[in-house]
């Protein structure tokens, strides 16, 4: 999921019929133009993020440490400047969030501990089958595994590994900042929270198509296989993006989506085919089914907004005379 390395959607007014839209009341563009400004801003952010990866000319592959270090620099600059796009959007639309920009983007202390722990726990439950598969294939026992995980040398080695830093730290942080924390506040007043959850990941999924360029450039596979892989990657990154957008709205925090993103980057896409051929196939498949079942059962309770305090995006829509009970309560 690391980018470093509808017609069916109805545009909803930001106001109820009996109340004048806040943006109109302020003499700003109407809801239609507001939506175009929002979509264009999100598209600009996505293009800037991906474009920053290619400002450096190099004949080296994307996993080379020198390439990763250069991309760290450019993508961190773009990500640091991305809140300015939200500020510009606020000035152009006249929408006043009623809270600070950082709070709107998920940087707040209220409810931060459950926001960090519960979404990650929920995601680990979903990956129960793959986690069981990983433990069965690992030659070391639980005690030895914990020693390795807790050893300072292991962490020191990870922190000097450019690919680990990219996949577990930089990519999750910058992608969630740009594609969730910045885009959702701009899309939600335009189309509502529900459609925004499914629209925002489209920018995220399309942003990963840049991998096609590098795969074609280095002839890593046949053209057909490359495009098939890109279509598959777009599908699961879009689904994952919808999930983290849901977490961002329901918790009002950025930390949960970042930690879940890092965990999913570590786990990768579940190796279902390998599980079907595993010697311990039956318990593994039971673990897969149990994980998905528990995830669906606990999705609403573990993301209950009451656990995380007031939700900035819900407050934003309430100020505009709109509310979405399904996601905000």
Q: What is the structure about, briefly put?
A:
The chain is mainly α. The chain is built from 17 helices and no strands.
Keywords:
329 residues; mainly alpha
Would you mind describing this structure in some detail?
- The protein starts with 21 loop residues before the first helix and ends with a helix.
- 71% of the residues lie in helices and 0% in strands.
- It is globular, with a radius of gyration of 21 Å.
- The chain has helices at residues 22-25, 31-51, 65-93, 101-104, 112-126, 128-137, 142-150, 152-159, 162-191, 193-207, 211-217, 223-251, 255-267, 272-276, 281-302, 312-319, 325-328.
- With 329 residues, the protein is an all-alpha fold.
- Helix 9 packs antiparallel against helix 10 and helix 9 (162-191) crosses helix 12.
- The chain has 17 helices and no strands.
